[in-house]
Inverse folding.
């Protein structure tokens, strides 16, 4: 990843002159600032910021928004925290703090020198504040995000004068699939500037990327790379994730740098297009669960580097895996020209949702056709069928993949709040509004995708406002102000029949046509023909490397169950089952299922619990169920409602069970 030197030749004098010129005439002589800094100052001005002014309506996330961002980025945050603590040790007593921000520049976590943290808090260098260039002008976090590069911004290089007491270094953090996840930053008092800080922050970002990679790909095929053999297995190594038929499915920044590859190589290139090796021979020698031996590899230009292939437990055995290559062998096919993110690579997010069901395949195929077109997508389907997951996949597979994906649940907030949340508000626009105002989720989605979940629940007055935004592609914050241009791809979802909502007068017809560029109905789980493959994939994801499976009895019960909660319910059931499995158990039996599901399986299949227990493993389970019922009745002194509650089943079901056993 490139490092941007903003002002290699910057001196206090030159910066002062530049700032004067900038304030007086709004133009800059070329030799005053490094090109990167000049471009960033220009962007800052285009955002309407004045160097000597207070940023207008600088946003600060509400506690709920911060909590949501933390939940959304929990994997990043959990891997970043130990690294941040380590960095904090290195900069102890240096008037500095370590900060983690998300791709929108929202600070997620900060820790460091208490004295400095106080001053930093005064310029809002604290969790919830947003440090994108749009709101704070040139600053290490925002500029690293804008340029996708490691950046130092020192003193008066900051666009806003009130930030000139800071010196900051920031490095982007990228996930194994090449997605920008956030930024790691060290900010301190300008006088405490230390030239090693940039190296420190860059190493910290690499450590986090390494951890993220290991946690995601340990169960699969990983090729470790380093210029020196001793470097293999250290946090400085390059890492590639490979599919069993040789596609590069993941890479860390170090690997991309070692191989001279762009991020777009991930998911679109086979290893043999990068290294001079016989993938088949390499894999044939591999054994699941074993690390390979270091070996010298050659790039296509003949230069050497060291590599080691580690084979995770989920990889099928070597030769047999290779005997069945994927249907398309693209080794001899030229890499398709790429605009933005891959629209049709074999490993993209939409393709990953295809587990073999025809209706899903049709939905994926149709969505793919409009990925790069300004056509609003309307996702319909029962609750829990994966509409949000599908929406995210269209974003990740489309040309806006490296821009924000902003999700708003129209049913989750009261009308007044959702209006502010969506359209933003100016400072003091309404009682309880944050003093600084907020840009609103529509503006946050600028350049990316806006996902409006439960659009069918949007109150009518807001539907009118939304319609205006969609027609004019401009948003006016609550409390007035200048309209701001917005450009986003719209994806909406609803579990209601939107056409029927229109007919009932609860949804505007004109808005219906706007949001319904292409409507796709995702199948309910009971309609899907790929339940087995879905379960298999989910178990692999929940317990990587454990090779879990359903017993024949549970698989049969699952196949006939109605799954009212769809995939959401299935994920929860499997998660519970995994938690109840013993360390050495690999087969999910009825006894590993949550009680209420056993109960529902009984009612939905019309079989009694004892009968199911007999099918499910003999009389043990039946006796156990009988004992549970007796115990619940005893401990609740015969109160049936209380006993049913303790058993986690409905009162009616308990009545029925008692009748069945003649009780
Ligand atoms: N293909 C999938 N593989 C694994 N998990 C999935 C898949 N699709 C959905 N899920 C999981 O199922 C749950 C529900 O998914 P999601 O929120 O996308 O459904 P939804 O249709 O938007 O639901 P609602 O209408 O209630 O908002 C989530 O926990 C999600 O992670």
């Amino acid at each position: 990843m490139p490092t941007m030197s903003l002002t290699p030749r910057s001196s206090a004098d030159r910066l002062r002159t530049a700032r004067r010129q900038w304030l007086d005439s709004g133009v800059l002589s070329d030799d005053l600032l490094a090109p990167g800094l000049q471009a960033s100052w220009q962007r800052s001005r285009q955002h309407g910021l004045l160097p000597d002014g207070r940023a207008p309506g600088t946003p600060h996330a509400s506690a709920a928004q911060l909590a949501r961002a933390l939940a959304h980025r929990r994997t990043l945050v959990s891997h970043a925290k130990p690294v941040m603590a380590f960095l904090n040790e290195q900069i102890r007593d240096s008037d500095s703090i370590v900060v983690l921000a998300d791709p929108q520049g929202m600070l997620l976590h900060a820790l460091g020198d208490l004295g400095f943290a106080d001053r930093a808090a005064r310029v809002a260098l604290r969790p919830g504040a947003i440090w994108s260039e749009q709101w704070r002008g040139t600053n290490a976090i925002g500029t690293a995000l804008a340029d996708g590069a490691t950046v130092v911004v020192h003193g008066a290089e900051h666009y806003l004068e009130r930030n000139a007491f800071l010196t900051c270094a920031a490095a982007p953090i990228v996930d194994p699939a090449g997605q920008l996840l956030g930024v790691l930053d060290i900010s301190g008092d300008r006088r405490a500037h230390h030239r090693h800080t940039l190296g420190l922050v860059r190493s910290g970002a690499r450590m986090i990327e390494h951890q993220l990679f290991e946690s995601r790909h340990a169960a699969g095929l990983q090729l470790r790379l380093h210029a020196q053999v001793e470097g293999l297995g250290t946090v400085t190594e390059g890492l590639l994730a490979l599919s069993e038929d040789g596609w590069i499915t993941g890479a860390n920044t170090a690997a991309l740098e070692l191989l001279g590859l762009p991020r777009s190589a991930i998911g679109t290139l086979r290893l043999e297009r990068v290294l001079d090796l016989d993938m088949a021979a390499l894999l044939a020698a591999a054994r699941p669960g074993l690390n390979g031996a270091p070996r010298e590899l050659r790039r296509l230009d003949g230069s050497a580097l060291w590599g080691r292939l580690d084979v995770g437990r989920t990889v099928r055995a070597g030769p047999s895996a290779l005997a069945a290559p994927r249907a398309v062998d693209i080794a001899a096919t030229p890499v398709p020209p790429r605009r933005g993110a891959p629209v049709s690579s074999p490993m993209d997010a939409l393709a990953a949702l295809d587990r073999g069901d025809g209706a899903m395949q049709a939905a994926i195929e149709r969505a793919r056709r409009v990925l790069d077109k300004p056509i609003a997508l309307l996702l319909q389907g029962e609750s829990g069928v994966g509409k949000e997951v599908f929406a995210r996949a269209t974003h990740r597979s489309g040309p806006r993949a490296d821009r924000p994906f902003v999700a708003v649940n129209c049913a989750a907030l009261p009308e007044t709040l959702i209006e502010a949340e969506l359209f933003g508000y100016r400072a003091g626009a309404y009682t309880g509004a944050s003093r600084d105002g907020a840009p609103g989720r529509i503006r946050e989605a600028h350049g990316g995708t806006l996902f409006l979940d439960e659009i069918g629940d949007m109150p009518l007055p807001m539907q009118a406002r939304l319609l205006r935004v969609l027609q004019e592609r401009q948003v006016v914050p609550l409390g007035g102000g200048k309209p701001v241009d917005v450009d986003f791809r719209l994806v909406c979802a609803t579990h209601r029949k939107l056409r029927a909502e229109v007919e009932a007068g609860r949804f505007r017809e004109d808005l219906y046509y706007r949001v319904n560029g292409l409507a796709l109905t995702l199948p309910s789980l009971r309609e899907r023909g790929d339940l087995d493959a879905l379960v298999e994939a989910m178990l692999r994801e929940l317990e990587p490397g454990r090779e879990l499976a359903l017993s024949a009895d549970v698989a049969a019960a699952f196949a006939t169950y109605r799954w009212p909660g769809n995939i959401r319910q299935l994920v929860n059931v499997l998660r519970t089952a995994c938690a109840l499995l013993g360390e050495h158990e690999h087969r999910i039996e009825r006894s590993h299922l949550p009680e209420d599901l056993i109960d529902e399986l009984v009612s939905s299949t019309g079989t009694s619990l004892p009968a199911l227990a007999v099918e499910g493993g003999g009389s043990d389970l039946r006796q156990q169920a009988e004992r549970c019922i007796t115990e619940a009745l005893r401990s609740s002194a015969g109160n049936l409602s209380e006993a049913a509650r303790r058993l986690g089943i409905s009162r009616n079901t308990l009545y029925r069970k008692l009748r069945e056993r003649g009780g």
